[in-house]
Amino acid sequence: MTAILLVQGDITRQSADAIVNAANSSLLGGGGVDGAVHRRGGPAILAECRALRASRYGRGLPVGRAVATTAGRLDARWVIHTVGPVFSTGEDRSELLASCYRESLRVADELGARTVAFPAVSAGTYGWPLDDAARVAVETVRAADTAVEEVRFVLFDERAYEAFAARVG
Questions:
Q1: Which residues are catalytic?
Q2: Phi-psi region of 68 (alpha: psi -120 to 50; beta: other; left: phi over 0)
């Protein structure tokens, strides 16, 4: 059984086998968690992302998928990049959000990662309501068939922490 921990803070300051990046499909950096991971991790992450774009992901990483790179200067072995869906009131995209967590754990298993730090995927600039983002994240991780021993949700502020705490119990 995978242990689920909650931490309020900066995901780029975490020590884990893998840190999950809430990336945009370009894989070339952006705002929020994505920008922070690229800034703190340094140019090695961007170099590997560019190589991925030049080979397998010429059109970008699809929503709900995940891919790993080096972690550069982060205190981790890998960064697992996943592209969350933009929230929509007119379309249920929760399966795409759940796929971000499942796919990230699948990649972590392929790498042999035992500890994985996740942000609240899609709950920032992509507009996903925090309570529902927490529900999807926690339910998906609990249901996942994974060898990952510890999933740490790293929440940026108290509001996000409380939303996830209500789901973890």
A1: 34
A2: beta
